[in-house]
Amino acid sequence: MRIAVSAVGEDVSAFGACETIRLYEDDHGRVTGQRVVPVEGAPVRALERSGADVLLCGALTGEERRMLAEDGVLFTSDVHGSANAAVRRYLGTAIVCDPSNNCNYCGHKTECDLTHGA
Phi-psi region for residue 23, left (φ > 0), alpha (ψ -120 to 50) or beta? Predict the structure, then answer.
């Protein structure tokens, strides 16, 4: 599985404000590789090119949620802290992606009311 994290520097950021997509290759709960993809233009295009299965980010707009869902990318927002720590929490199931792509923090299917993760 390929896990993407929207980031500014080493930290998780709102998807629309990210400077990079940090990609982690997962093999049964163990990170086997990592690389950083610069975002030039729309972050959703960089994510599409990365082949990510999952996105961890600070916040998503309703339009970003729709586009990711159409691409079949599972996502969760309101993630914070370092990207490395976020991936460890995700792999340890402290962060859960909802298969229906609801925000696992507030349950909304569209733009999240919460802005503290942005």
Answer: beta
